[in-house]
Request: fold
Amino acid sequence: MALFNRRDPQGTSSGEEASKRGALVKRPARAIAKATPAFTVGSLEAALLKEFPAQDAEEWDRTGLLVGEAALPVERVAVALDPTVAAIREAARGGANVLVTHHPAFLAPPTSFAPGSSVATSPGAGVWAAIQNRVALMDFHTALDVSPQAARVLPGMLGLAFTGRFVEPLSGSRRKGYGQICDVPAAGDGPRTLAQLAARCTAVFGRAPRVWGEFDRSLRTVVTATGSAGTCGRAALAAGADCLVCGEVKYHEALDLSGAGLAVVELGHDVSELPLVAVLAEALARVGVAKDAIMVIDQSGNWAAPEALRV
Reply:
């Protein structure tokens, strides 16, 4: 006599029911995918402030969230050097509702808010564009400048050996500061003369720097500083360095420093700091933002030298 499974009115056998119940409690054989943290604008700011603490920033600086609602969920994050109106609009077009930059949208609060293509025509144009496009703005300016992550950027790109010391160390920290003191490697293809260092800068950044000093001068110690040199030049001179590589230096300061025996290589403010955009993108990934949720806005074409153009 054939045996049949008993079925319920819906046509499900008792054997099938047991199998389903077992499937519900059975541990899956494959590993469960790691959950990606869900950030709000505020929690993303808090995570990045652990990477670049506000207490490391200069007193006059603005650090963290400047424009935006902290409670909103993060959809995608754009990264750039400058929060220009164009960058804010590009971030919005790319689906980002947060723009993380090195430079702040403002230091002194804007005196008026109106649409504009630049803050040159309307002081609050950037803030207006951010609100209009629903893009939160946050920056980590001087807190990023003194960070251990930023300290190795220029030395690594120029073939210099960072000693871990600074001409202007941050108070209370040996790992942070302005002006990285670097040795010129005795072996390998390191830039051992000022001419070789200038050529390396041109090759790496695609822009010819301005140089003060004798090109055949031998180099043993080089100080690197992104952005404005500020007082790093005098500190580098006092430390006995042979050369200062910086983003920007005042003409008379460079003239005085070179006259005192310190060669100066000026890259261009933005040229020296554009690599810090990658540092910010890496920090976002490190705190848990999915890599496919990070977009980098290229601002390397803001200006050009005539010799780089075909006319």
User: Anything to note?
Assistant: The chain has a mean pLDDT of 90.
